[in-house]
Amino acid sequence: MLQAINRFGAMRLVDIAAATSLPYPTVFRLVETLVDAGMVELEPGRRRYRPTALVQTLSLGYRDELALVALARPHIVALCREVGWPVTICTRVGNAMMVRDSTHRLTTLTFNDYAAGYSLPLLECAVGKAHLAWCDPEERAIIISSLARLDSAIDKRARLQLAPESSLLADIRKAGYASHSHNQFSANPGRTSALAVPIHIEGRLAATLGLVFFASAMTIAEAARAYASLMHQTAIAISAAQQP
Predict the structure, then answer these.
(1) In this structure, are 72 and 106 located in the same domain?
(2) CA of 90: how far to CAs of 79, 206, 242, in Å?
(3) Taking the mean position of all CA atoms in its chain, how far away is CA 97?
(4) Residues 125, 35 share a domain
(5) What is the per-residue pLDDT for 61?
(6) Which of 11, 17, 184, 229 is deepest in the core (most CB within 10 A)?
(7) Based on the domain organization, do 157 and 134 belong to the same domain?
(8) Which residues, in sequence order, are CB contacts of 130 under 8 Å at separation 6+?
(9) Do residue 152 and residue 209 come from a single domain?
(10) Containing H/E element for 205?
(11) How far apart are CA 170 and CA 176, in angstroms?
(12) Within a 10 A sphere around the Cβ of 201, how many other Cβ atoms?
C-alpha cells in the first residue's frame, strides 16, 4: 500500500484497493493504521491519502547496509585475492539470507556469479547459520516463531535444527564460524561448501561474511583451518572501517 501511494503521490481508498488487489474494508483499516503511525495523511479538502516525510525513515536501515557494503568492498576483494575463493557479504531478509556483495567475478574458482540480490534459505547456508548464532536473542526468537507458522519442507527442517535440544547454534559460537557442506540451494546444487563469520558494528550483528569453495577441493575442517582466521581478520577490519 505504501508503495502504491508513494508511486501515485495521492490516492483515494478505492484506487488503493484497485492498485493493491486488496478488499476495500482491508484498505480502509490499514490506511487508518498508517495515518495513526504518521506514515500517511489525508490531503486537506480532498479524499486522497498521501505519504508523509516519515516514510523516508523506512529506508534508513537499507542505506546503512549500502554504506556497509561500500566500506567492506576493498576488504572482501583483498581476502578473495589472498585465498582465491569468492567472498560474500550477506544480510537477512525475512527467512532468507540475501547476497549484498560478492567477489565471484574476481576469481576463476567459482561455478557461477552470485550477484547482489541472490538469496538462500536461512538454515540452508553458512551465512544464515552464522546470522542465527550471533543475532540478538529477541531477533532469534522472532525468526523461530516465524518458522513455526510455516509448513514447507525447508521450514520444517529448519525447525528441527533449532529445536530446544539442538546444540547447533551453541556449537557454531564455540567454533567461531558456521559452515554448510554441499549446498543444495546454489546454482550448482551440491558442488560447493562454505564458511561464514559474523560482522559486528558497535557490538551488534550487521552482516555475515561468507567464503565459498568447491566441495571436492577440501573438507569443512580443512577449509576452517586454512581460512577461518583470515575471515575473522577481515570481519574485524570491516567493523573498524565502520567506526566514525
Answers:
(1) yes
(2) 16, 9, 16
(3) 4
(4) no
(5) 59
(6) 11
(7) yes
(8) 172, 177, 178, 196, 197, 198, 208, 210
(9) yes
(10) strand 204-214
(11) 10
(12) 16
Cell digits of residue 62: 537499507
CA distances in angstroms from 58 to 2, 54, 92, 167, 217, listed in the order given: 11, 8, 16, 36, 43
- Count of domains for the chain: 2
121 and 151 part of one domain? yes
Q: What SS3 class is residue 48?
A: coil
Q: Is the dihedral of CA 201, 207, 100, 78 positive or negative?
A: positive
Beta strands in 75-149 (DSSP E): 87-93, 96-102, 119-121
**What is the CATH classification number for the domain harbouring 33?**
1.10.10.10
For β-strands 204-214 and 192-201, DSSP reports them as antiparallel
Q: Is there a contact between 212 and 194 (Cβ–Cβ < 8 Å)?
A: yes
Q: Are 104 and 140 in contact (CB under 8 A)?
A: no
> Residue 208 class from Cβ within 10 Å (0-12 exposed, 13-18 middle, 19+ buried)?
buried
pTM over 0.85: no
Domain containing 32 equals 2-51
